């Protein structure tokens, strides 16, 4: 009987330790998007850009379906200040570009990734319209039809 009680006690201890550990992980990760937006085709040019709201912690989930696919997103800066944009994808065979354009279609920032993700910071003005863009910069021959899912994150 004593042994059973002891076992139950260790089980309870073990599970409380597990709870503490997972709570710590949640606090450390703190990547909880306020909203997730998606790309809707066709969005291969400015006038068909998929809209999103650039609030802190918001996220875009999209897929570049092939070499020719380009994804445009349009947003209006909700406040003036520095915005951090980053893109992540899990495909070491391709390199994506992330470009920020202003309302006049002038590029503010062009970043060609050299790894599996990239980020940059820019000062944006409240109420101004901007475009965010991604496409495949390089891909090995023969991979042209392999879709590349990606996520773009916005922090400000
Ligand atoms: Ca597209």
TrEMBL record:
This is Uncharacterized protein. Keywords: Signal. SUPFAM superfamilies: Collagen-binding domain. Residues 1-23 form the signal peptide. It comes from Brevibacillus borstelensis AK1. It comes from the Bacteria. Gene3D superfamilies: 2.60.120.380.
